């Protein structure tokens, strides 16, 4: 029967979907696939769905939620099925799938196979990739699960993936987990991915980003610039740890940001100045020479701070002069008070003498 009518497979899928069977509604289809010689369920399912997609895209889209629900081990994580979907649907059918996802009727991705799907999608057409990223966004997948693919992406070649990741990063607050793969990404002259997101975060989360950069640079070991060599001699436990960018990798992105962006006020942030000063004190001369223009911003900032301090001291020396004169007057007033007290003593003493003199005549009068 299958040889004479090859479309009987997806006809059966449609019949079982609209039927009233609740428990294991696709068991009949599975039994049918087992009767075919040299065919397993996965190959039968993909062949039937491909025929359905060619004959009727609307029916194909209608069947998709049940395919992922009833055949999760086959459908979820299948780059082939996803490519079949995004290569055939239009905007209206994409909207139907997004609605199904938001209602909780459709789950298309799994963590353990997600990166393999992203890698496979890099070879797809532009519209196919954008449809895929719409489905990814509908699933609300954490951006941390996407970041491991970042070092592999080329700015000129993988524009669809990079632009979609940028939009997702724009909605996130910077963190050490997000900065790590960004700084590990190779810095190239005409690659504006890292510059764009760092500049945006510097505008929206200046204090947090500056503190994160300082922490990243401070914990990097300038004496071991080659992480690959260190990683080859490390134990299996340390090999499982996430790779941290070197100081030179971090400086390369900051220097690119300095060259591209006109406003570099972020570099003058206190934490950023501490980070650059740490580099000046702990890094090799070759790194200092390579990023001399960037590190000079720390020196210029220190010069400005020193100038301000000197100006403040000058004002401090000049402004208290009136108070100093007052202080000079107050000691001058102190002797005058003492002199007045002594003068009062001198006045009092004659009065006592007068009282004595006055007292003697009274006595004389009494004698009289």
TrEMBL record:
The segments labelled Disordered in the record are 220-247, 311-368
For this record, an example GO cellular component is: cytoplasm
Q: Which InterPro entries match?
A: HEAT_Ints3_C (IPR056518), INTS3 (IPR045334)
**Sequence intervals crossing the membrane:** none
Q: Domain of life of the organism in this record? A: Eukaryota
Mark out the compositionally biased spans (Polar residues): 315-325
The segment(s) forming the Ints3-like C-terminal domain are 1-298
Q: What is the recorded name of this protein?
A: Integrator complex subunit 3-like
Gene for this chain: LOC106153556
């Amino acid at each position: 029967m299958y040889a004479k009518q090859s479309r009987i497979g997806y006809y059966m899928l449609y019949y079982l979907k609209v039927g009233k069977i609740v428990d294991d509604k696709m068991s009949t289809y599975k039994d049918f696939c087992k009767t075919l010689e040299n065919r397993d369920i996965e190959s039968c399912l993909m062949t039937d769905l491909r025929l359905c997609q060619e004959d009727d895209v609307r029916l194909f889209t209608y069947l998709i939620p049940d395919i992922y629900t009833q055949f999760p081990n086959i459908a979820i994580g299948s780059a082939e099925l996803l490519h079949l979907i995004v290569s055939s649907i239009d905007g209206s059918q994409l909207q139907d799938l997004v609605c199904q996802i938001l209602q909780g009727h459709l789950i298309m991705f799994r963590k353990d196979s997600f990166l393999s799907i992203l890698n496979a999608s890099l070879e797809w057409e532009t519209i196919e990739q954008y449809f895929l990223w719409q489905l990814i966004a509908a699933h609300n997948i954490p951006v941390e699960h996407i970041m491991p693919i970042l070092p592999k992406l080329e700015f000129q070649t993988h524009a669809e993936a990079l632009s979609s990741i940028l939009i997702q990063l724009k909605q996130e607050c910077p963190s050490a987990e997000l900065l790590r793969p960004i700084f590990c990404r190779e810095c190239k002259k005409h690659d504006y991915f890292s510059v764009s997101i760092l500049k945006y975060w510097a505008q929206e989360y200046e204090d947090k980003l500056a503190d994160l950069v300082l922490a990243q640079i401070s914990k990097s070991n300038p004496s071991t610039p080659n992480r690959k060599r260190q990683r080859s001699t490390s134990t299996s436990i340390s090999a499982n740890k996430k790779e941290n960018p070197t100081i030179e990798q971090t400086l390369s992105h900051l220097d690119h940001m300095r060259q591209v962006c006109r406003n570099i006020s972020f570099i003058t942030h206190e934490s950023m100045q501490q980070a650059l000063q740490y580099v000046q004190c702990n890094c090799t001369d070759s790194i200092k020479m390579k990023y001399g223009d960037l590190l000079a911003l720390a020196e210029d900032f220190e010069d400005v701070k020193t100038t301000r301090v000197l100006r403040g001291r000058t004002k401090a020396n000049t402004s208290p002069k009136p108070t100093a004169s007052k202080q000079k007057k107050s000691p001058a007033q102190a002797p005058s008070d003492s002199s007045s007290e002594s003068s009062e003593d001198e006045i009092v003493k004659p009065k006592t003498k007068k009282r004595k003199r006055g007292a003697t005549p009274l006595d004389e009068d009494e004698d009289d």
